[in-house]
Amino acid sequence: LGTWMRALKLPLLTGVAVRSCRADCCHSDLDAAIQQGTALPTQDLLARVLQLAAEGRLMLARRHLAALELRQDIPAMTSEMEAELWRVRRTGSKVLGLRQCLSTEAGWTQSISFAGIRCWHQQAQPGRGVVRVCAEAEVDAPLFDLLSIFYEVDFWHRWAPSFGHLGLKSAGLLGQKGPLRLVYWLEASLPWPFQHRVCRFAVEAVDCMSAGEQPQQIVILLDSQEAPSICPELLDAESPEWQGVLADVLDSGFILTPPEVGGTSGTKVQVLLNLDPKMVVPDWLVKYAAMNLCLLIFLQYRAAMRLARTPEFLERSCDPKHPFYSHIRKRMAESLPSQLEQAPAVRPEGCRNQQC
After folding, report:
1. Which of 37, 86, 99, 140 has an alpha carbon within 20 to 30 A of 305's alpha carbon?
2. Tell me: the pLDDT tens digits for 17-29?
3. Number of folded domains that form the chain
4. Is 85 a domain residue?
5. Cβ of 302: how many Cβ atoms within 10 Å?
């Protein structure tokens, strides 16, 4: 962000409307003023868009960018700045598409309703092997714990379904760009006819927690095709010694809506998965095999919430210097303080455990 601001030949967030902002609450006032059409120097507006994008607040950045694009005096930008604005547009569109897809049952066939978990599927197009499933349920856990269980990919083996020689074999982090954009990989042994599959996919957390968001949520985007944009070195890297077919996750994700926003008793979790297993999958197999696997994963994920308060997780999630958890705590304090109150306490600096 500092590089972009220097390219614009101005300090971070200059201008009369911004100079008085010395706290995050002032930024909230600034964002509200922009949305209400208050005149703001174009350079300051551009600076705010770039800052929000860097913080993962891409939907708010997208709305400000729409206001910026109406201006006639947009300054010249570097290729890096242009790429970041393109990312804001593209990611914002993906979030809107995910929300729209998960907001209706039209076009979906409900296959399972068990223990408060509902699963749907769509019949694949003839000759194509993309499996489309979605699910939703309430989970009796705060946002912080839900994020922690998913974020700690090297702990997935502690809760992901695995029975004998079937299930998750391994998972890990391939690389990342900042605390909110990561690339994961996993290996799984599945029943016939899927057998052994490997998957590499980008994970991008989109912060929709600001007070002006409707609704306030956290959106996680999953997409194999976005992995090289986060880790360009993957394009030239030799393939790891994985055994199995490389499957793809395409334009997928999940949405976390806290109870105080959604009016539910627990956090509402909605998931959309478009999986290309590199084979044509008959509809009956999606209906019975994929749906039951989807239900099992959801049951295990819900049961895994207790792990978020075990010493292994707390050693990471309560680290005051951890980039991801520090960022999440800061944003919850600004926009969803009731959720921060339910998160585990930050460990004092210099201590390695919560009893220090």
Report:
1. 99
2. 333 334 455 666 6
3. 2
4. yes
5. 21
